[in-house]
Amino acid sequence: xxxxxxxxxxxxxxxxxxxxxxxxxxxxxSLSIPRGKVTAIMGPSxxxxxxLLRLVTGQLLPxxxxxxxxxxxxxxxxxxxxxxxxxxxxxxxxxxxxLTDLDVYENVAFPLREHTQLPxxxxxxxxxxxxxxxxxxxxxxxxxxxxxxxxxRRVGLARAVVMDPELVLYDEPFAGLDPISMGVIVRLIRExxxxxxxxxxxxxxxxxxxxxxxxxxxxxxxxxxxAGGTPEELRGEESPWVRQFMHRLSDGPxxxxxxxxxxxxxxxxxxx
Amino acid sequence: xxxxxxxxGEALREFVETLGAMTRFLGRLLWETPAALMRFGLVWYxxxxxxxxxxxxxxISAVFVGMVLALQGYHILNQFxxxxxxGVMVAMTLVRELGPVLTAVLFAGRAGTSLASEIGxxxxxxxxxxxxxxxxxxxxxxxxxxxxxxxxxxxxLAAIFSALGIFGGYVVGVxxxxxxxxxxxSQMNAAVDVRTDVMSGVWKSIAFGITASLVAVYEGxxxxxxxxxxxxxxxxAIVITAVAVLAINLLITAIIVGEG
Lengths: 272, 260
What we know:
The complex is a heterodimer. By secondary structure, chain A is α/β, with parallel strands linked by helices. Chain A is built from 10 helices and 10 strands. Chain A has a 6-stranded mixed beta sheet, with helices on both faces. In chain A, β9 and β10 form a beta hairpin. In chain B, α4 (86-124) runs antiparallel to α6 (138-176). Chain B is globular and about 65 Å long. Chain B: Keywords: Cell inner membrane, Cell membrane, Membrane, Transmembrane, Transmembrane helix, Transport.
């Protein structure tokens, strides 16, 4: 299964192969992200979920295969065309990636100031609207160092959507957040997706939160797509890989132990 | 023995590689310079951050260096009964050699390390990737203003260094050691030639400004995104600049002396 049935794709990956330092990350990945929906890409840590986002945005080049965003091939695209494409994409980094020498207001205004000639009053209006939508209008003049992890991510989200993109990519948006912040981010992703008619892609391993917000989810493991479906469908999946991941089993096809030699032998040998 | 040669060869290869990469990076920065100058507000802000904030350390160091030069110079010149040439000696030493060299080394210690660690941390905290994702080129937005600010700041700071150094020399020579102020200034005025002496210092400080700024931004931009990577980049920014400045100083001096 590489495509949710009956959905127009916004992103399409075909036969993707990528390796890093000689270690294959993706062997033959093909998947489709439907337009206007919230799609999650899940999988255990180290399976290349973030790498997949970086491939989609042209930060990394695959060894083989095709990546199309909105029908446009990303691999081998020129720098200017890539930048034009990125102006239509919002990206929320795991920790917000706010510019530490600018305050919250200027961080959100940054893409507008760089890419448009809008007058200050209009920039002010846009920035305040986005900050209001993430509940941080009152924090406009705080510096990033004064924000909590959850607040930084909300500012990152306001910045990601300030240029009114068609597609927003979320890299581990729930990682390291307290339950309240997590709930806020879940609600914001859903609301922003619906209000702005976006396509949203969430890379995460937080099953509960993803289940609340995603219309569709792909599970990656061992360099391949091992399952795809709605979160409810995935919970009922019988495959051992999917069962281990969705039901949080500590051992299974993804072993608890990192590959190592014989245990007693290791205990006997004292390193000099 | 074989291992030693192998290590030496490896170090040489690494040096040539780094030099090549830095030259390519400099080429890119020079190519971007006209566009960066169009957004002079960003350069101005950095000029204030790294240039103006280096003034204090440059100023204090300059006064002390000038004082030491006057002290040492006075005792040497006194043996030949030529203490009225103290002003010439202090001015020549500062304008031609110590001003540009020490300014560049102090600038690398004060501003170069801060630039390298700032840019390295921006890389480590995904700020540069964030810009890339917002379709903003970090070389144009982050590196160029800092590089140009450094290139502009070093010659200005070197001029201030030399001026304050001469003032320090005056305080010790005339104020403490009793050298006559008339010959101190008049001999300096007659001996220091703008076209040769001052311009030699100016050319040197421009070359050192480019070197110190290039090394700092290059090391920061290419720092591995780890604590150790940023720390190494910061150290390399000062070490490489100090060695490069001394080597380039020898080269420029040799060319100028050769011409003279």
